[in-house]
Fold each of these.
Amino acid sequence: MTVAGNEPAPERDLYVLIRDFEQFVHHASRLPLTGKVILDEDDVYAFLDHLRRLVPEEIDRARRLLADRDRLLEQARAEAESMVRQTESYVERMARESEITRKAEEQARRMLAQAEARAREVRASANAYAADLLDRLEGILRKALQAVVEGRQELQATLRAAGRPAAGEAGQEAAPAVDEGKPDGEPGGGADWDEPAGD
């Protein structure tokens, strides 16, 4: 599977890109009688470049979520203040009528309690919503960053195994080989690219 020249769509999910890389490795040419595959260096770097572009997009998304949370909290505060002002105005108006002063105070207390309860409910809902989204986003970012680190380690291990210099050194055209037979957790191990569990 070749990705050179194919730019990912802006909405492309990190999980999709990681899964594509797994398929890319799975369908790569294999060295006979070995557990290794041959990967095109340009294609591997193209995948890593795509990951680098997606991670800042996820960070921007986190900032937008924080802004949305602040907006919801401000809206809740404004609603609560408006309800309190209406209640106070109602109390003042009713208090001027001596024959119903007591009833006005009781009604005002009920309205004020309702306004405060509503404000607390809106704030709690907004905080819970923002916290849930941020927790999910944190998980996505951690997996994406881990994928970048593992991809770089695997590529460097492949280049060293093939006697090729790593990125930043003298460039060569030969395609590196990746050892898919190593245990999980070691550079080059195929299990490093398992698809992350869904949230």
Note: Residues 91 and 105 are 6 Å apart (CA to CA).
Amino acid sequence: MTSTSSVLSDRYARDLRAPLFSQLGKRIGQRWRRLITLLLFDIFALLISWQVTASFGEPFYLLNDNKDSLLAIATIIAFQVSLLASQELYQAGDKRRDYINIAKTLTIAHLLLLSVVFFFQDSRNILHQSLILSGVLSVTLVCSFRYSIDIAIDNLREQGFLRYPIYLISKLEDKNSAIKLLDSDRRYDFAGWVDITTINERDSVLQDIYRSKVSDVLIYSWEGITSQPLFYIKLKNAGVNIHVLPTALQVVEQKIKLRFLGSIPTFELSSYLTIGGDFLIKRCFDFIFAIALILLLIPAYLLIALLIAIDSSGSIFYKQNRMGLHGKTFQIWKFRTMKTDADRSQKSVEFSHQWKDGALFQTKNDPRITRIGKFLRRYSLDELPQLFNVVCGEMSLVGPRPVPNSDVEKFADRHFIRYQVLPGMTGLWQVSRSNTDDYEIDKVVNLDVKYMENWSLGLDIQILLKTIAVVLGRKGAY
């Protein structure tokens, strides 16, 4: 097996995307602190704008009594804040400092409110001049408050506070210049360095980065890393933002932000926004749904077990070692669909039937399959015991399908990306293929990566529903 697979065999915590919950909590805490701070200051600025408007003697009441007026103002402020959020003005980086966009968004909010007042309110209840004055004050105060926050943060960072630890990956000759670059940007503290010429031989590099609890990694020479997509996915799964100098960069994702480190532009490849939340939602859904299905399918389990026992001698279940999350081996469970000597006779069948590039062996009319096994495979009923793998946390309902370890040994390095998430009972490839013998590993991995990048609970449900339709409509699995 390749050196990459040995990296994968390191046992990290069981998680969909991020192996370190402590780092995850830190990043989530940073995000929420920023969001709450900006929200409180924006709301305070908007409240002041209305209070100042009222102090000039302008009628302030949208409705007849004071309680309704306060409710209306609260609704207006909520609307203003929602528009700001829709323009991503609470995100990290330069977006929250886009004062032109802030002014434009608040102006649009007041124009919409002015239109509502013009068409639906009696002019005696509120003067249009009040809204104009409030709009000017809102833009001025919100921008001023945010600018004050930036000045305060810059002063704190000058004193060494509110900085993000960043890990450096570069050539030895570039180390000093890279550290100077980081020193010129007060947002970051240098947390560690590794020589990029040794990174491909050192399995411990990723563990060093994890232990450093860094939020960002600066890669000074991206072209020096072999298996770039795999390295990129592993860092993203750890909740790490990746900064890459825009030289010889092979783009590995479409959503790339241009960010500056000091005066030098870099590409930022961001981590997933809700890493641990994704995992918890997915795991809870998997556990509850799997338990419910097991209880519902008890009669089917008993009937299938009886038919297998009648059809051929041997055990009811078949178990086999498969590679799971981060390369950890687990035993996958199935209903037995082959004769008891199937593993011993596999080698001769491989060469007498369909064998593609020495991997992922499947064949039609396999003589080892029993009569009841053909029926079970046709409707994928042999996979039902894997619900217990799901309950135990070794598999997910949806994810890349695990293949036998003997086939994994034939994988190229880039194919190991699929082992950065829990393997699934079904996946995007299973519901996308047009027939059962068109398995091309590169296409499969591309679909696996697409699933990892676009995961949502809705996508899982969509794949599960599509799986039912595919199983009932296809001619059969081998």
Note: Strands lie at 164-170, 188-195, 216-219, 241-244, 257-261, 264-269, 317-323, 329-335, 396-398, 424-426.
Amino acid sequence: MGCVIVSTPSAIYVRVPSDLLREFDRVAQEHGLSRSEAIREAMRLFIRYSRAPDVKKLRGIVGNAKLSSEELELYVLPA
């Protein structure tokens, strides 16, 4: 007999500064995404890029440099 595994979505609660949420919602809307869809996509991208070997290597090389994570990602992550 086979077994069927059903995955049910999990709900999360996150506190976000209102200006960040407004900007996020604006960008999501520009891309035709609901807030939930955009958050799921952002989570997938975060996982993908966190595992990218080049990002890990550059974070180690840069170490105490004056680059923020955002500046570093501009050089590493594809547009």
Note: DSSP finds four helices and no strands in the chain.
Amino acid sequence: MPRRILTQWLVTLTTVVALPLSSLLAQELPKSDDSFEVEPPLLVPLSELGGADESRKGGSQAQPDVATLEQRLARAKKNAASSERLVKMGVLAKVEAEQETLRAVRLESELANAQWIAAQTQVSLQQTRNAAGQASKADVDAALEILARASAAAQTAEENYHQAQLETAARNLSRQRQLLALGSAHKSDVARAEEKLDRLQRGDERPGN
């Protein structure tokens, strides 16, 4: 009988202590607003990184609007900067940080392309309004000037993205060769990395080609 009473007393004491402890731990957990915002890295092979270019090739596909792309680009740049810090801290793999950086460059190209398309729309609109006597030739000329700048910016952003792809593919090939030498990769991995770099160098995966 005394042993049963002692057991019940210990169970009660454990429960009483556990309740405030669990409450304290819950308070220590960071709220979602305080969490470190880093988007998940692109978990796709390098051979699929050019897939985003297809959206620029297919004019019939819906394009994100400029405002949406601006928000996505700002977030991607923030994540890329955070990734670099995490690599220095040893928390994130360097290859994942490279993917975040490449993603930001890709979004810069997509944004510039969207701005170019928007400028084209404005030119058509101003020309239509001018024909109807609702806009002056100066309005049309201003829209054409904006279009010219947007076209040049889109071309530059496209070239920057292509260069970033080349550099990423070259680093990946070097990495795969090192892993193969260490016995941590297969010859097929190296072959795929070589093929990816070769396609980029030939321009087969360049947007618009």
Note: The two ends are 87 Å apart (CA to CA).
